[in-house]
Amino acid sequence: MLDTAKVTAKGLRRWEAGHPWIYRSDVSERPDAEAGAVLVRDSRNRPAGWALWSPRSEISLRLLDPDPNAVIDGEWWHERIAAAAARRVGLETVTNAHRVVHGEADGCPSLVCDKYDRWAVVQLMSAGLEAFRAEIVAAVVSVTRVDGILARNDVPLRSKEGLPRETVILHGDVPREIEIDEYELRYLAAPWTGQKTGAFLDQRENRRLAGEHARGRALDAFSYHGSFALHLARNAESVVALDASEQALARAAQNAELNGLTNIEFVEANAFDYLRAREREGEEFDTIVLDPPAFAKTRASLPGALRGYKEINLRAMRLLSTGGMLYTASCSFHLTKPLFMEMLEAAASDSGRRMAIREIRGQPVDHPEVLTIPETGYIKGALLEALD
Question: Which of 48, 51, 114, 53 is nearest to 81 (CA)?
Fold first, then answer.
């Protein structure tokens, strides 16, 4: 059985340029082996390193280790996951929930591991990675000392890898709800059913930023479980938490009660309709947060997404009081940073307001964005002030 792959010069150049993926079209000789780790060789048959091999995926090879003498076993995974965890030291002073492994950015391609208090939620998103399930579980338990591990393997990407989509316990047990502390605010994560692995950990620092600048009458559009609204409510006089989901708002109200916050009004409505209606009525807000779901899920949907992003930002800018603050974000990977800024510039121009950039924001330290791997970064954020 051939457990090596041979790749083209083009494929190898991606590795040399710092990107860990080699696509099917650049695999000149496919391994006969099942999904797992294979040794990769160049066109001259020289060893180039070890990679995760996914026979059915368009992304056939994901670089694990450039050392051809490496042994990809339980000890290897323990060392790699321990190194990722070490880069998060210090976060435990501000929160009991953070990302331990951010996939390719931490040298663990297609692996996500989030820690929620005494439990972990993982996602194994490639066939090659799935072959090391037992080793990864053992490493996560050893490094994080968690009581239980849940696999949220319900992501569509697994279907492209020929893997079942499932939510299953891999170790111990994990409760349906976990109370999270974040900068002295509390909210409930839902690891079994919530978005992502149970909560949006990637906006933690941006929530704090928005809360620090909040004042007067505040609006948290696309509020979901109210994470931004909770931070706004500590400094604003009143907060409108807006979402189209009655179920999400019920959880948001529960989170507000958990913190003894009584200045949040929960409104079920379409954000586009709500912003247009408030503008027609001449209302104003002193603080606005726009953190919508990904409008551009594919490259083909980008033009329509740009129109949507521009509209909500235009409406929000017109609703701001003089001196008011807008924190706006996009989590669409296909909306690049330059396009995000161009969209904000166009929205500001059409709004007739002078909008000043106070801060450009991205992802927190536990969601590192590697310059040579654009797929590791997706959040773009900006804190803007209405000058007139």
Answer: 114
Q: Supply angle C-alpha 96, 252, 185, rounded to 5.
A: 35
pLDDT at residue 2, as a whole number: 54
- In this structure, which topology does domain 200-386 adopt according to CATH? Rossmann fold (3.40.50)
Nearest CA-CA partner of 148 in 187, 118, 181: 118
How many Å apart are CA 386 and CA 377, to the nearest integer?
28
Tokens of 44: 């001259």
pLDDT in tens, 173-230: 999 999 999 999 999 999 999 989 999 999 999 999 999 999 999 999 999 999 999 9
Q: In what order do the strands lie in the sheet with 36-41?
A: 21-23, 59-65, 47-53, 36-41, 4-7, 27-29
Banded pLDDT at 104 (limits 50, 70, 90): very high
Token pair listed for 55? 């026979």
Q: What's the DSSP call for residue 169?
A: E
pLDDT value at residue 1: 40
User: Does 331 participate in catalysis according to the annotation?
Assistant: yes
pLDDT digits (tens, 9 = 90+) for 265-321: 999 999 999 999 999 999 999 999 999 988 888 889 899 999 999 999 999 999 999
DSSP state of 272: H
CATH C-level class of 4-65: mainly beta
Both tokens of 62, joined, read 């994901």
Q: Which of 331, 344, 347, 348 is catalytic?
A: 331
Contact (CB, 8 A) for 127 and 54? yes
How far is it, in rounded angstroms, from Cα 232 to Cα 288?
A: 9
Domain residues of the chain, as ranges? 4-65, 74-178, 200-386
Helix (H, G, I), strand (E, B) or coil at 185: strand
CATH number of 74-178: 3.30.750.80
Helix (H) or strand (E) holding 387: none
- Decide: pTM greater than 0.85: yes
Element (DSSP H or E) covering residue 260: none
Which DSSP string corresponds to 293-351?
--S-SSGGGHHHHHHHHHHHHHHHHHHEEEEEEEEEEE--TTS-HHHHHHHHHHHHHHH
Q: How far is CA 203 from CA 82, 139, 231, 340, in A?
A: 24, 27, 12, 17
Token pair 């989590």 is found at 331
